[in-house]
Design a protein that fits this description.
heterodimer; A: mainly alpha; 2 domains; 2 strands; about 0% strand; globular; B: mainly alpha; ABC transporter involved in vitamin B12 uptake, BtuC; two-stranded antiparallel ribbon
Chain lengths: ~375, ~290
């Protein structure tokens, strides 16, 4: 009975990939609006934080999950996007969506350079080069302190909600459009747009080629794929996402400073991508949520259990580290991989039970 | 001239530490094909153990020995409990496990020992030798740093070249299947490899700490430069790790001495990219074979 219902529901869905993804994104938008309107400023800013982690993480998924190139340097690419946004918004002449697009474009350009250098490298050598990138780029901001503000960084004037929008929101929900909520909206709408684009891209010819390169370079090359070009392209797409993530970060944090783009940021992105479930956009979202919501929850739990403030603050990274290790040991495919495995086991058991029933009643084994 | 000598000497002793750290990474890479990002955190942890012993009134040398022994045990335990299940699996999973350990060890250290800066004593003087009327930036402690790194390297060479255990370790790193067929207990060798590497890493941690401040994140810079050094030399070559470490130490010292310390990280990036563009598998790689 439930099977026929799901089949009927499936018939109602649009048949094209674009249509299905569009529907998914619209549903996501609805959820985002409801959640952001129902939560307070603190949660709003947490969701804003999650949005920029997630934008960068889904970009990294394309690079690491689909194309098999590891990057420990995406924090540096986010820095490029953040500084571009900061410099453009400082002039006051550019509306913020233009600044964000410019940030994505500049970072994509940086991605061409980095990707071209990285295309020849494999495994740990690529990891080492990108790790050096992660610590090197913030140094650039300190060296050219006249432009980038040195250690102090650039103060970013984040966009204020325009009056007509605030009025319209007040009219609909009778709630104020706070600055935190507005920024969270910007972040999540950007994230949904990125998700739509990437979901289509991964289902396209390019997605297939990237997977082919990841799974077997030699076979892909024999099939006519130009490895270097596809690798650089993956890097460019991934870098553009990181740049957008950096742009949102700059607006949410209101600051672009070297201390915001430490090696920890780059490593956190990689852990988010792998722990959620490598190669899947949903997995990257899950990983980013874990990154943002787990530490405060653990700290809260720690203070409830009677730990002092500093001890509770240290409990959060401890639990995060342990979660990383345990997830990798228990569920090598990440959280999403474990869910898939459980579902698979469940359907197989149900199918097995049905087969046994069928054999019992009509003796139609095979 | 005097500045040049000082910068060179400072670079050499710093490079010796990077070399030791890179060597530890290479030992683990050769044995298990894993980059141990937790190496720095583990070394930090054992250095804190030494600091606790020193503060309890024990001698520096007892604490030194205890830290190295602690590194040995910690490396073995980590390999057995956490690394063994991900060995031979997807490379990224092992990376994430070591990153998780990296985060967790730092948090444990902060919980146990506090996250404030604490000074770590040095066993030898920290004022430079005098040559004529000049004071060069080479202290008795720097001599100890270079000397102990050289001793450890010679010890490792002797172990791998001349002993039965070393031969078995090389065999299991070269080909696990064949080694197993020949009666080598490969698992034990891998554990031993991790233990030795962690002890060498602990040594690097102690040497960096001597006469400096320690806090739970003080090894973060060393892991970056140590990794860069290992990649520079070629991850399969212990000699390459040493050369890479000295090169990075010297280069960074020159950059910070003549151009400005804020360019150090950029210089590391530039050197690494330049080398990898010419030799994608490091300076001392053999001809690369690719499995089809």
């Amino acid at each position: 009975m439930p099977d026929s219902v799901t089949a009927a529901a499936r018939r109602l869905l649009p048949s094209s990939v674009l249509g299905r993804n569009l529907l998914g994104v619209l549903a996501g938008l609805l959820v985002v609006v409801v959640v952001l309107e129902l939560t307070g400023p603190f949660r709003n800013s947490q969701f804003a934080t999650m949005s920029y982690y997630a934008i960068a993480a889904v970009g990294l998924t394309v690079l690491t999950g689909l194309n098999g190139q590891i990057s420990l340097g995406h924090g540096a690419l986010m820095a490029v996007g953040a500084y571009t946004t900061g410099l453009l918004l400082e002039t006051g002449a550019v509306p913020f969506p233009v600044a964000m697009l410019a940030a994505a474009a500049v970072t994509a350009l940086a991605g061409v350079v980095v990707g071209a250098a990285a295309a020849r490298l494999h495994g740990p050598y690529l990891a080492g080069a990108t790790l050096a990138l992660a610590v090197g780029v913030p140094g650039l901001a300190i060296y050219f302190d006249g432009v980038f503000g040195g250690e102090q960084g650039l103060r970013v004037s984040s966009p204020r909600p325009p009056d007509w929008l605030a009025d319209a929101v007040y009219f609909v929900t009778a709630g104020d459009l706070t600055s935190a909520r507005y920024l969270a909206y910007i972040g999540w709408i950007t994230l949904l747009a990125v998700l739509l684009l990437l979901a289509n891209l991964t289902a396209s010819r390019y997605g297939r080629i990237w997977r082919a390169v990841r799974d077997d370079e030699v076979a892909a090359e024999l099939a006519g794929v130009r490895l270097g070009r596809m690798r650089v392209l993956a890097f460019v797409v991934s870098a553009a996402c990181a740049g957008l993530g950096g742009a949102v970060l700059a607006m949410v944090v209101r600051l672009a400073a070297p201390s915001g783009f430490t090696i920890v940021l780059s490593l956190s992105l990689l852990t988010a991508v792998v722990v959620g479930g490598l190669g899947s956009l949903t997995g990257a979202l899950l990983g980013s949520a874990l990154l943002v919501f787990l530490p405060p929850a653990v700290t809260g739990l720690g203070t409830d259990l009677g730990l002092t403030g500093t001890q509770a603050a240290e409990l959060a990274p401890l639990v995060y580290g342990v979660v990383l290790v345990v997830v990798m040991l228990v569920a090598p495919g990440g959280v999403l991989g474990a869910v898939h495995r459980l579902r698979h086991a469940w359907t197989r058991r149900r199918q097995g039970a049905r087969d046994v029933g069928a054999v019992g009643s009509s003796k139609q084994g095979g | 001239m005097q500045q040049f000598v000082n910068v060179t000497l400072g670079g050499l002793s710093q490079g010796a530490i990077y070399a030791a750290f890179a060597l530890a990474l290479v030992l683990i890479w050769r044995a298990t094909r894993i980059i141990n990002f937790a190496q720095g955190s583990m070394a930090m942890f054992t250095t804190y153990v030494a600091l606790v012993l020193i503060e309890a009134g024990h001698s520096y040398w007892l604490a030194f020995g205890a830290a190295l022994l602690g590194g040995l045990v910690l490396g073995a335990v980590v390999e057995r409990l956490v690394i063994r299940p991900v060995e031979g699996g997807p490379a990224l999973n092992a990376v994430i496990v070591t990153l998780g350990l990296f985060v967790a060890f730092q948090a444990i250290a902060a919980l146990l020992f506090g996250s404030s800066f604490e000074s770590f004593p040095a066993p030898f003087g920290l004022s430079g030798f005098r040559v004529g009327e000049f004071t060069v930036a080479f202290t008795p402690f720097s001599a100890f740093v270079i000397g102990s790194v050289v001793v450890v390297m010679l010890g490792l060479v002797a172990l791998f070249r001349f002993t039965d255990v070393g031969l078995r370790m090389r065999a299991s790193a070269f080909n696990q299947e064949v080694a197993r067929l020949l009666g080598v207990r490969v698992g034990g060798m891998l554990t031993l490899g991790w233990a030795l590497a962690a002890a060498v890493g602990s040594l690097a941690g102690l040497l960096i700490a001597g006469g400096n401040l320690v806090h739970p994140a003080y090894m973060d810079g060393v892991i970056v430069y140590g990794f860069v050094a290992a990649v520079l030399g070629g991850l399969d070559s212990p000699g390459g790790a040493v050369v890479g470490g000295l090169l990075i130490g010297l280069a960074l010292s020159y950059v910070s001495g003549y151009l400005g310390s804020e360019l150090v990280t950029l210089a590391a990036l530039a050197i690494l990219v330049a080398v990898l563009l010419v030799r994608p598998h490091g300076l001392f790689s053999r001809a690369a074979e690719r499995r089809v």
